[in-house]
Specification:
D-amino Acid Aminotransferase, Chain A, domain 1, five-stranded antiparallel β-sheet, four-stranded parallel β-sheet, 9 helices, Dna Ligase, domain 1
Length: 301
């Protein structure tokens, strides 16, 4: 098969591992920077050009689209889909997962456990909303934040009001969530491929920090999930429409709660912590499922 990896960073661990795993299994792999792609949209024969020439046809595409280029990256992926190329994750599913508010609403509608979450537009409603999520301490999140950026833990109501006021002054959209104290600064990253969790790790924040992201100095170790946690991770990925996802879960007193569903989960942390060939499993999934024109959301926006 000819497989494109849609990524701006050919030297990034995840991109390198996917290329390596694909080549080891006999596939022709090519890294394509989505920002260097340009498209003929009006043609009866959709085209993608890359660095001055029309791209050769691919059998499948693996999107590794960074959050900062979601709009253009998913537009390029949508063009691949129009050309009949099989996407590991579809453009609609990626867009859905990247919208934190929309994704939480979709998960809530399907009855999945979530931290109590508030969202408001007017500053006059903030006081009541803080009460709705259980009061301080609470977590304030920028809707556009990634890898723990734009996430603030406020210990008191006064501190929360000050942070919210500051974000409002920047016209930033924010979520307010209850702080799950019993999680102890740890969360679970569940790597889902298809209909099962293929690897899982427990991430623990460094001392003095509550965000467990490895990019922020957190540590990781292999963890055994409960059946409920596995089911929650698989169902969350399915709700988003993602074939491959990193589902972040907290262990709370009332069961597993979903923090986020990541459409481009990193491979370095999970492969290092678990010793599993997650990249190889990803390529195996493509081998089993890739069919020309096999796009579930084709024509649905």
């Amino acid at each position: 098969m000819k497989i494109a990896v849609l990524s701006r960073g050919p030297k990034l661990y995840s991109t390198r591992r996917l290329v390596e795993a694909g080549e080891q299994r006999g596939h022709e792999m090519r890294v394509v920077n989505p920002l260097r792609c340009y498209m003929n949209i009006s043609s009866h024969r959709p085209e993608i050009h890359y660095k001055g020439a029309e791209l050769e046809p691919f059998d499948a595409v693996i999107p590794r689209i960074g959050a900062s280029v979601t709009f253009y990256g998913t537009a390029v992926l949508r063009q691949f889909e129009m050309m009949g190329v099989y996407p590991l994750n579809e453009s609609v599913a990626i867009t859905r997962a990247r919208d934190k508010l929309r994704s939480l609403q979709l998960l809530s509608r399907k009855g999945l456990g979530l931290p109590i979450t508030g969202f408001a537009h007017h500053a006059d409603d903030i006081d009541d909303m803080i009460g709705l999520v259980g009061g301080a301490p609470l977590v304030i999140k920028l809707l556009e934040g990634t890898q723990g950026r734009g996430v603030v833990l406020t210990e008191t109501k006064q501190a929360a009001e000050s942070v919210i006021d500051a974000f409002n002054g920047l016209r930033a959209n924010i979520l307010i969530q209850e702080f799950i104290k019993e999680a102890g600064g740890s969360d679970l990253r569940c790597f889902v491929i298809g209909d099962k969790v293929v690897a899982a790790m427990k991430r623990t924040a460094k001392e003095g920090e509550f965000r467990s992201n490895l990019h922020r100095g957190g540590s990781a170790e292999i963890i055994k999930l409960t059946p409920e946690e596995r089911s929650t991770a698989v169902r969350s990925a399915r709700v988003m429409g993602l074939n491959v996802a990193g589902v972040d879960i907290l262990r709370s007193n009332h069961g597993p709660v979903v923090l986020e569903v990541n459409s481009s989960p990193g491979l370095e942390g999970i492969e290092t912590a678990t010793g599993k060939d997650v990249a190889g499993m990803t390529i195996a999934f493509i081998e089993k499922n890739a069919r020309r024109g096999r796009t579930g959301t084709k024509g649905k926006g």
